[in-house]
Amino acid sequence: MDGGRPTSEFPAHLMSHMARLKVDPENRVVMHSHPTNTLAMNFVHELDEKKFTHTLWEMCTECIVVFPDGIGILPWMLCGTDEIGKATAKKMEEFRLVVWAMHGIYGAGKTMDETFGLIETVEKAAQIYMLTAHLPRKNTIKDEEMLQLVDLFRVNCRKDFLNIK
Ligand SMILES: [Zn+2]
By CB count within 10 A, which of 28, 33, 157, 162 is most buried? Predict the structure, then answer.
């Protein structure tokens, strides 16, 4: 022992593992990081799961295919506590991605590569958002187009996160 303590995210990490494994036994990797643009977006975008997810889906064509279940969001909470651990695990029953407001993101997947790719896709979309949010929007990826992607790649997206029924 070198006297070191486990990371402050340890309870959340462990509980997320257990929650995610219950939903999908193949989701053996849980990753936590503090991606810059995803965090920046937390300060300027509403922290509503549907709106946040929808904005990111609009930013890159691959987004709805990569994270069709959307993104769960927890309000700012003290990290390192059982409380945030339980709240993250609860969200992980529904989402593979959970944003900790003004702190970072959790992702779950089958392998390190896949999970890293998942978070990286969110971060890339958030970067495009941050590069364009202050500029007049001339074009976007429409919900009808997202549905075409979902059909083509045969993924189940959260229809309630789209603006069309
Ligand atoms: Zn952290």
Answer: 157
